[in-house]
Amino acid sequence: MRSYLARTVAANGFLGVVFTDRQTGRTWRDGATQRPGWTASTVKLAIAADLLAEQRAGHLTLTDADRHDMDAMLSSSDEAASDRLWKKFGGEAMLARFRERFGMASLRFVPGFTARAYWGFVKCDTEDLAALVDHVLARTAPFDRDYLVNALRTVAPNQHWGVWAAGAAQQPGNKDGWSDEADPYGRHWVTNTVGFAGPAQRYEVAVMYQVDPAGSLSEGVHAVSDVVALLFGQPVPAEVTMPLPDG
Prior knowledge:
Elements: H1 2-9, E1 13-21, E2 26-31, E3 37-38, H2 43-56, H3 64-75, H4 79-88, H5 93-102, E4 108-109, E5 122-124, H6 126-138, H7 142-153, E6 173-183, E7 186-197, E8 203-211, H8 217-231
Antiparallel strand pairs: 1-2, 1-8, 3-5, 4-5, 6-7, 7-8
Helix pairs in contact: 3-4
């Protein structure tokens, strides 16, 4: 694995991977796991988990329309559905809850974008995504956890990559994120994936890849998917479904 990261990724962007075995409690990490990068749509998992927790605490009520938007946000990474939930239920205030509730310590709005507090203008690091999926699996109320697990296991084809590359036998579930961003690093693609695989969601996986400015969406999708495939002993290059460049 380390030779793959060094050969394929190290000189071509910033990739971090955190892999935890929930049964043994052991965690393996490599790469730029503490380098903040654009979350892209992976933050939508935090939005869903937060709204479920807020409803359970009696702080809000999700309507049928809200639940439909949540389903779409998780399944196909629907942007309009995500926007509606973000605007209706607190927007900027959510980030503080994500940090406190999920342990996403480095999560911040991107400098220069704070005038418009929008879910798409945030960065975190791979450790934050690992903390998020661990919270979903280990500390979310059982009914809400079951909903999230099922939602991530039944995502639309545009998210059949990343943790999905663990293979069908591992019953993976994931929330992927992909976007074309610009910052001091340059204009570059982002391909992130967070989720679980294995019996009883034994393994937690978080991978963030800030692709080199010379790289492509395809290279990013294949890189994070191949990392997961190697972790689970699957063939490389992994079989993936490429998303459209707008998620």
